[in-house]
Amino acid sequence: MNINYIHKIAAGIALTVVFSSCVKNENSFGYEYMPDMYRSPAQEAYVDYGEVRSWKSNDSIKNTQSAKLPPMGTIPFQGANADPAYSMPYKRLPSKAMIVTHSAMSLEYSDEDYDASALDVNPMRMFESNVEHGKQLYTTFCDHCHGEKGAGDGIIAEKGLIVPPSNAFTKAEGQMFYSITYGKGDMGSHASQLNQKERWQVISYIKSMSGGVVIPDALKTLEMEKVTDIIGTGSTVELLPETLAGH
Ligand code: HEC
Fold first, then answer.
1. pLDDT tens across 36-70, in order?
2. Positive/negative CA dihedral, 198, 199, 201, 202
3. Residue 185, ligand 1, Cβ within 6 A
4. Which atom of ligand 1 is closest in space to residue 162's alpha carbon?
């Protein structure tokens, strides 16, 4: 065998040994050249990248969706001026009982989330336009069971088919949102009829039925403190200490 040829083989083996011994971890792929070529950064649609799992958050990009531009020809879920916060997936999980009662299929369930939802506060302010829209939705989707004033005496209840309790609307507003979203007992889920914003608007209307103070739309641009000066603090709905603009 030609001596040159033996040298080449020896050099090849030496190089292989040198490169393969660079990384100690046997599970490692070793050095990667141009890793972006085969390991592209994952961007998932409709994920809140501000919330890096529940224990960590990046407030500067919170409530911004990863999917900025929908594919051509798709229909916007909430219109061009929608607040993306309301398009985020609902953070509360259905309980296991929902599999049987409402066929709610989910990758995860939580039997504690209904109780926990009592702490959720309605992010919509009680502006008259919100309440008015909530009233229209209530008349369309809820009245026939719950009745005009929410006493559980709608036309379906009168026939004795499904009778909602007369105190259904005394629940915490977060729990109302949960039950409207997933359904409860004989009441089906209304998540496909009402988007999240509309569910809160219905709840605003329900609150106004039991004396919640409705704020005139003309006050939308005022700071919260000034609005409280004008309407007083008698509202049954907790008003959030932010400016009201945009709601
Ligand atoms: C088919 C009749 C029916 C319709 C339509 C209906 N509900 Fe109900 N609702 C019920 C019944 C029955 C219950 C009692 C459920 C239970 O506790 O088992 C109930 C309970 C509730 C509760 C109390 C939930 C809780 O956590 O205890 C709220 C709030 C509520 N409904 C709101 C609404 C709103 C808002 C709408 C319209 C978007 C609506 N419902 C439409 C029948 C209905």
1. 666 666 666 666 666 665 566 777 777 666 666 66
2. positive
3. yes
4. 12
Confidence of residue 153 (pLDDT cuts 50, 70, 90): very high
Residue closest via CA to ligand 1's atom 42 equals 187
Tell me, what amino acid is at 90?
Y
Q: Is 233 exposed, middle or buried (0-12, 13-18, 19+ CB in 10 A)?
A: exposed
97 within 8 A of 109, measured Cβ to Cβ? no
Please report which helix (H) or strand (E) contains residue 45, including its range: none
Residue 180 Cβ inside 6 Å of ligand 1? The answer reads yes
Q: Examine the pLDDT at 97 and tell me if it is beyond 50.
A: yes
pLDDT for 212-247, tens place per residue?
889 888 887 776 666 666 666 544 344 443 434 344
Ligand 1 atom 16 nearest Cα: 185
Tell me the C-alpha distance between 113 and 111, whole Å. Answer: 6
- At residue 67, what is the residue type? A
Kindly report the pTM of this predicted structure.
Answer: 0.69
Nearest residue (by CA) to ligand 1, atom 13, is 164
Reduced to 3 states (helix: H, G, I; strand: E, B; else coil), residue 92 is coil
| Structure-token pair, residue 127 | 């502006």
Going from the N-terminus, what domains does the chain have, and what CATH number goes with each? Answer: 45-65+78-87 (no CATH), 90-231 (1.10.760.10)
